[in-house]
Amino acid sequence: MAVFIDPSITLAELVTQRPALARELERRSLDYCCGGQRTLEEACAGQGLDVDETATALSATPGGEIAPWATFGPVELVDHLEATHHAYLHEEFGRLTALADKVAQVHGGRHPELAEVRRLYGELRDDLEPHLTKEEQVLFPMIRELAAADTAPTFHCGTLRNPISVMVREHDRAGELLEQLRAVTEGYVIPDDACASYTALYAGLEELEADTHLHVHKENNLLFPAVIALEAEMPA
User: Fold this and answer.
1) Per-residue pLDDT tens over the stretch 202-227
2) Which of 43, 79, 91, 152 lies 20 to 30 A from 104 at CA?
């Protein structure tokens, strides 16, 4: 029997408790990563959705298991992020760049929006690649050091709130670019004359969007609050 979802739950809590609902929120343009602190009721109002109808539909969606990552501590979570979402992006970037270039060259005459798709995706990749590097080489090692310490370590950045605030701003920018990509592709609708490469590009970009939203959710709504709390309670 489905458990009815309380409209006062935040979108972040909802996806942490029931990750299977991430896709359903995506379909309704309900932002659970950068906008995860809004309640379901607030988010529905922002999109002009009936909150009771939405809560009923979400409640009936199969898959109520809590994901293992929802219970991870900071070190387990950074290991998980690198092994899953970071690895996925490193692998996909080149493939999607090649597809975007090819499809724009072949189909750009009939579909001028493909030039904008290629530009936006290129900007997204240019933003995300150094972002991943900063996390892997700077922030995540400091989080591991903090978690292993008995007293608060001295970091070159002062408090970890400082690099975390930078990461959050960069997440917001990635979210804006993903939103623009969805708009220019009209929701990744594949035209009638699309070839296999065209289809693969749009499918790949939509998958990247979903993966990045979940990636950002895990960092903004789970990892970063846990790290800030750990640092705050660490004896000097």
Assistant:
1) 999 999 999 999 999 999 999 999 99
2) 91
